[in-house]
Amino acid sequence: MTTVAAYAAPAAKAPLERTTIERREVGEFDVLIDIKFAGICHSDIHQAREGWGEAIFPMVPGHEIAGVVSAVGSGVTKFKIGDRVGVGCMVDSCRECENCKAGLEQYCLKGMVGTYNALDRNGEPTYGGYSEKIVVDEKYTVRIPDGLSLDVAAPMLCAGVTTYSPLRHWNAGPGKKVAVLGLGGLGHMAVKLAHAMGAEVSVLSQSLRKKDDGLKLGADHYYATSDPKTFEELRGTFDLIVSTVSAPLDFGAFLSLLKSDGALVNVGAPEEPISFNLFSLISGRKTLAGSAIGGIRETQEMLDFCAEHGIGAEIELIGASEINDAYERVLNSDVRYRFVIDAATI
Description:
With 346 residues, the chain is of the alpha/beta class.
């Protein structure tokens, strides 16, 4: 076991504080990663404050991890010391179910093992990226291309692949009209990715406050959902809407913006249950769907795509002592567009 410094929430809703945790010894197929940067995801806040249900404490959040390999197990073939690597939202899965075998480990039928707030195969709690080092099986580690700096690559391990996966699955590309609902940590990546895929991209946001940003990021159009005229003007417009917001929506209103056979895909996860009239789906053979991160193969594909197209997250780099302030700012939508922790400050 190796003792490393980390920032942890000692209990639900408690401020995060500096502490130490134990990392397992490097096994045959493990890599030891010196963490350089860790993104702050809204889901870190949901889990640290038990917004999604009972959680495991103390909790070390962080599933947007970028770093450098500093040791490898004897059986490792994918990586060597000095390689630039990333770890996203999962560090293991059953590896045997049909989804795992199909490269869809995020939908493991026995449940993937989360990078934090989960129990590993030995029943030990997992601790995330707000720490100096992490030990991960090579199968759940990806390579960060040389064309991406580690700081802007870190948020892609969640925000990037969480938006890339539904855009690919629902065939965003030339001739398709795609709307991104919400321009935050996930939304800004969705805009960049959909634009790079060749789709006509619109942002649907509560106000026009971030319109200039949205257009610079690659959006063709920008609309305020607080204006009732938006829903009249855009009725039946989109092939695909990707909702990145984690607040309850008027799903009937947003489904009305889809073309026949269009899909509204949720990657944001509100803490409250939702309700809507099923006629919103029946009228137009529409789909209301969800999507969660991506498998390891798709995560690597996303990183390679971003390197090829010069896409990185828009970040604000912070020291570890600023984590609690950053949480409050995320809740107030006061970040453009992803906080990233400099792990050297941990």
